[in-house]
Design goal:
The complex is a heterodimer of chains A (236) and B (290). With 236 residues, chain A is of the alpha/beta class. In chain A, 38% of the residues lie in helices and 28% in strands. Chain A has one domain (3-234): P-loop containing nucleotide triphosphate hydrolases (Rossmann fold, 3-Layer(aba) Sandwich). Chain A has ten helices and ten strands. Chain A has a six-stranded mixed beta sheet, sandwiched between helices. In chain A, strands 2-1-4-5 form a four-stranded antiparallel beta sheet, covered by helices on one side. In chain A, helix 3 (95-102) packs parallel to helix 6 (139-152). Chain A is globular. In chain B, strand 1 and strand 2 (135-138) form a beta hairpin. Chain B has helices at residues 2-30, 37-53, 59-87, 92-114, 139-161, 163-173, 175-180, 185-210, 220-231, 236-257, 262-276, and strands at 129-132, 135-138. Chain B has 290 residues and is mainly alpha-helical. In chain B, helix 2 packs across helix 8, helix 6 packs across helix 8 (185-210) and helix 9 (220-231) crosses helix 10 (236-257). Chain B has a domain at 14-215. In chain B, strands 1-2 form a two-stranded antiparallel sheet. The chains are: A alpha/beta (236), B mainly alpha (290). The A-B interface holds A 51, 53, 72-73, 75-77, 81-82, 84, 86-93, 97, 100-102, 104-105, 133, 135-139, 142, 149, 153, 166 and B 163, 166-167, 169-170, 172-174, 176-184, 284, 286-290. Bound molecules: adenosine-5'-diphosphate and magnesium ion. Residues 14, 17, 19, 37, 39-45 of chain A line the site of adenosine-5'-diphosphate.
Amino acid sequence: MSELLKVTDVTAAYGGIHALQGVSLKVDEGEIVAVLGANGAGKSTLLKCISAIMKVTGGTIEFMGEPISNKPYELVEKGLVQVPEGRQIFAKLTVEENLRVGAGLRKDKENVPKDMERVYGIFPRLKEREKQYGGLLSGGEQQMLAIARGIMAKPKLMMFDEPSLGLAPVVVSQVFEVIKEINAEGMAIMLIEQNAQKALEIAHHAYIMQTGKVVASGTGEELLKDETMVSAYLGE
Amino acid sequence: MFFQQLITGISVGGIYALLATGYSLIYSLLDFSNWSHGEFAMIGAYTAIVFSTVVKAPFALAALAGVAGGALVSFLCERFAYRRIRRNGAPNMFLMIAAMGLSNVFQQASNLIFTGQYRSYPFQLPVSTVKVGSAYIGVLDVVSLLITAVVLMALIYMINKTQFGLNVRAIANNAGAAKVLGIKVDSNIAKVFLLAGSLAGVAGVLYGMKYNVFPTMGNVGLKAFIASVIGGLGSVPGAIVGAMLLGVLETFVSAYISSSLRDFFSFALLIVLLLVKPSGLFGVDVQDKA
Ligand SMILES: Nc1ncnc2c1ncn2[C@@H]1O[C@H](COP(=O)(O)OP(=O)(O)O)[C@@H](O)[C@H]1O
Ligand SMILES: [Mg+2]
């Protein structure tokens, strides 16, 4: 399968704090790739670099064989979309409007209504609450909305930053089900998580990060079996 | 008499609304009150004066030039002052101070260029009145009101029904998320300054038709600012309602009490409202649960 995202030796810093110290990883088409690591490992920083919110100080990031642009909207246009940490839905826009913002950059406007229906098919709760403000949804529903909004952008690669954070276990399972489902439809996924067990269960590939470095990688299955490794780095 | 005053009040309120919506739009995006905003009305009014007297353009064209003038200067303020301050990561207070400075510069500059003399457009403006029931209503008021209504309806449509409006509301709500989702934040902010500036231009030309054109006429912006606070800072419909309330109140106070007490009542309304409902009439608060 062909390579979608390729991160090579990326370094990044906040002032004097070296948050990324030479990170390399890749995501192939159709894959779910998990990036695991304890709090502060540098996972979100990596995501910020990939989505051009933050400048790298070294290394390269390529998407579909080309170096990424430094403009976030060009990345979204190309199909690199994220579901940000803490969901970040638009609280003062209705559910429907949130979805329309997601679809804002698409050239194929004629397909937007159809995709809207598709998304409502996946998330019937959102359809019921179509005209309500995003801020009035429950935490789980807001996470669903953030995912749905991402889908509306028609991404080739969707990147999730800790989608299970702060959600009840039942809802977490639902979120992972949905991620599997949209992956089955052909979308590649990069899944940043602290919930290693769950993430490894659905991941084709996984990387474990610690203090700004990738310290282990393998298939989801391999890492699931290797309990010592997972507990050593993730402290579970 | 009552009906007559009401129409006048709404027409004055309309001029306030054209400016108040600009305050609200910019506040909603950048969290600061653009104190130079009233000057864009003044600049629009003078642009129309220049086009009609020096260039000798027909009035419709001069008026359009006035609108464009307001839009252009508003855009330039954002592009060359506010944007740089934002890039430096300075606190919003700096934006407000810069805006006050710009306001001063514009007033002084127009004083230098045009002198303090009151000017009016070299056209026979309709001074006639139409009789509605027992009331006589100024044709100019009606024309001004119609233009304002059309412009404000177009604005509301734009904000609520177009992708541009949606993007602007998304940025206002959560600029970080908007950027991550691919909304061009800076370019939308620039467009909003163009839009707000052109609304101010319309206000300036209408104000100039009703009264006169003079260097400090931009102070009407203060009234519009009060209106936008009454309506709930950052809310466009709030700004319109606040402006209408203020316009009608002022007109009635001038007509039935005393025109020297007009501003006293405006500020009193503001203070009472802030005591009763600090977020303004339309200041809705939908908080993130997450
Ligand atoms: N805005 C910031 N300013 C300064 N340091 C930061 C900032 N964000 C993250 N860091 C630091 O960078 C490191 C990596 O953080 P982050 O990428 O958020 O980790 P993770 O997402 O894996 O929990 C941590 O040491 C964190 O304290
Ligand atoms: Mg993180």
